[in-house]
Amino acid sequence: MKPTAFNAIHKALNAKMVAFAGYEMPIQYEGILAEHERVRNHAGLFDVSHMGEFWVSGPDALEFVEYATINNVGSLEKGQVQYSAMCIESGGIVDDLLIYRFADRFLLVVNASNLEKDFIHLSEIAREFDVQLENGSDSIALLAIQGPESKHILKKLTDANLDELKFYHFGIGKVNDVDLILSRTGYTGELGYELYHDPEHSEDLWQALMMAGEEYQLGPIGLGARDTLRLEMKFCLYGNDIDESTTPLEARLGWAMDLDHGDFLGRDAILKQKAEGVGRLLVAFEMQDRGLPRNGYNIYAGEDPVGLVTSGGQSPTLKKGIGLAYVNKPHHKIDTELQIDIRGKRLAIRIVKPPFIQKRTG
Amino acid sequence: MNIPADLKYTTDHEWIKIEGDIATIGITDYAQGELGDVVFVELPKTGDVFTKGEVAATIEAVKTVADLFLPLSGIIEAVNTALDDTSELINQDAYGAGWILKIKISDPSELNGYMSAGDYAASIS
């Protein structure tokens, strides 16, 4: 189990630590509900250094990333970030990722749980291109600051013009006198930033942000609240909501896919699926009865099994059970009433339009 | 770690308080800490009959779900309906306001073998 650069800090804060994707990570500090509400109402600091970072450079860098991912990479400006996914030939999703376009290279940010698989997958594709692919994960630590007060806190430690930094854009800037990648991205649905930095500066950066954030009630946030925050936004979690047996069409990631701009790995299968019609779709649902949906629970329309829950739990904001599920057509439509099997009892659910609560990314 | 001396404890991290032939049952402070924020408790009905070892209630925390295995056979005498709207009582006061149910014991000999506070403290240290 690898420690991140913040490991000693987590332990000093008495965080509950868990093994996650080969890293020892904090799951909670004060409690998931309190941490969740802190991010929605104030601001929270997240160690997300377990995420993987790959650098892509060389003459064919753009062509390579275009072929390996499903979105239109050529449309990205320098300094812009794009949410995308990588597929295998079947159209199944290898991983979802962020793509950062620099002047002369790309940074791909992938899930920790898929890091090794992704690197092998990309290395195989890279044989056909004139590119250098480098795994930079061990020399990059990642700290996220998220929540409505995040900008006020960050402003105290940087001269970078945060008012000009648009959503899903990044720049190289100094925070607490350290050069880092300052990215206006996140996994919470709130205004927020992610700071990619040299792990040698991690502890100082954490302490400086916590001190600057004291007047704004900044607090540390673990993976538990990270999960409830993303679920309220219907952001997919790899391994739960998407994997190699699900396609971008089924997961409704069409907004992050461009089928028209050129070839990419998996495109033929996805075009075929589009022409033939998708049989099931990832939907958002709310409990109508008391109870909490969990990954793996079955969904019924009367006696017919019509779906499977991929993510679920209590929404701390709505104070009721919410979930994501793959549901067969035509049961996927908004306001459809279905039943969920929770430990042998059939309880009522209703399909709702995501996100569960309003995005406030600014 | 809070482990009151006057209670009995199970290996499933439940506490039992005996008053005559009524046993009050809840989960320990250690158990609530491991579960994290409790957000919903599915309770049985008064009058339901259970055999030792059966699942009488289900405790849903944000991340996980835990069954309450009844440590004693008997009839449900009362359930803590305050948990319907304030399930966080289990986190805040596991041995007091966070009690889960009361059962009228049908076989007092089943109490033999449950742990004292000292033995329970040793089992989780």
Structure in a nutshell:
Chain A has 362 residues and is an alpha+beta fold. Helix content of chain A is 20%, strand content 35%.
Throw out a few tags for this protein.
heterodimer; A: 362 residues; alpha+beta; Gyrase A, domain 2; Alpha-Beta Plaits; Elongation Factor Tu (Ef-tu), domain 3; 3 domains; 6-stranded mixed beta sheet; 6-stranded antiparallel beta barrel; 8 helices; 20% helix; globular; B: 125 residues; OB fold (Dihydrolipoamide Acetyltransferase, E2P); 6-stranded antiparallel beta sheet; 3-stranded antiparallel beta sheet; 3 helices
Blueprint of the fold:
The complex is a heterodimer of chains A (about 350) and B (about 120).
Chain A: E1 2-3, H1 7-12, E2 16-20, E3 23-28, H2 32-41, E4 43-47, E5 52-57, H3 61-68, E6 81-87, E7 93-101, E8 105-110, H4 115-126, E9 132-135, E10 141-146, H5 150-155, E11 170-175, E12 178-183, E13 192-197, H6 202-213, E14 218-221, H7 223-232, H8 267-276, E15 280-287, E16 298-301, E17 304-315, E18 320-328, E19 337-342, E20 345-352
Parallel strand pairs in A: 1-3, 4-14
Antiparallel strand pairs in A: 2-3, 4-10, 5-8, 5-9, 6-7, 7-8, 10-13, 11-12, 12-13, 15-18, 15-20, 16-17, 16-19, 17-18, 19-20
Chain B: E1 8-9, E2 14-19, E3 22-27, H1 29-35, E4 38-42, E5 49-50, E6 55-61, E7 65-69, E8 74-79, H2 89-92, E9 101-105, H3 117-124
Assign the CATH superfamily of chain B.
Answer: RNA polymerase II/Efflux pump adaptor protein, barrel-sandwich hybrid domain
CATH class of the largest domain in chain A: Alpha Beta
Based on secondary structure, the structural category of chain A is alpha+beta
The CATH superfamily of the largest domain in chain A is: Probable tRNA modification gtpase trme, domain 1
CATH architecture of chain B: Beta Barrel
Average predicted confidence as pLDDT of chain A: 97
Please count the helical segments of chain A.
8
**How many structurally independent domains of chain A?**
3
Distance between the termini of chain B: 10 Å
Q: Roughly what fraction of the amino acids of chain B lie in strands?
A: 35-45%
CATH topology of the largest domain in chain A: Gyrase A, domain 2
The string of secondary-structure elements of chain B, in order, is EEEHEEEEEHEH
* Poorly predicted runs of chain B: none
Across the major sheet of chain B, the strand order is 1-2-3-9-8-5
- Oligomeric state as shown: heterodimer
Round the Cα radius of gyration of chain A to an integer and report it: 21 Å
> What's the helix count of chain B?
3
Q: Largest chain-chain contact?
A: A-B, 19 and 11 residues
Largest sheet, strands/sense/barrel of chain A: 6 strands, mixed
